[in-house]
Design a protein that fits this description.
By secondary structure, this protein is of the alpha+beta class. Helices cover 40% and strands 29% of the residues. A hairpin with a 4-residue loop joins β2 and β3.
Length: 107
């Protein structure tokens, strides 16, 4: 039996020895995410990516090790939501809330 699972993962990768301004290092990771071909959204506190388990976890692993090239100590946090039979959830979850709210959400 083949199951379609669309996973959303929100991840944050932080170099712990690079001071307060981290956008220079975040941009190195976002280059990888952008080239991955997966749907994603950058937020002020992390990145949300959509795909299957292996694609998403492989991407996060690649991003983690890219950050390790720039830092002796890296903290990676991952939050996962996977749901069988669903796709297009990166925008779909927001649209569902907007429908119930009967208004647009500021993003």
């Amino acid at each position: 039996m083949t199951r379609t699972i669309c996973m959303l993962a929100e991840f944050t990768i932080v170099p712990l020895d690079r001071g307060e301004s981290l956008s220079k290092y975040v941009s190195k990771v976002l280059e990888i995410v952008n080239k991955s071909g997966l749907d994603y959204k950058l937020t002020a506190m992390g990145t949300i990516v959509e795909g299957d388990w292996d694609e998403v976890m492989g991407l996060i692993k690649e991003c983690h090790f890219k950050m390790r090239e720039h830092s002796k100590r890296v903290s990676t946090s991952i939050k996962v939501d996977d749901r069988e039979g669903a796709s297009g959830r990166l925008q779909g979850k927001i649209s569902s809330v907007e429908e119930k709210l009967e208004d647009s959400i500021r993003t």
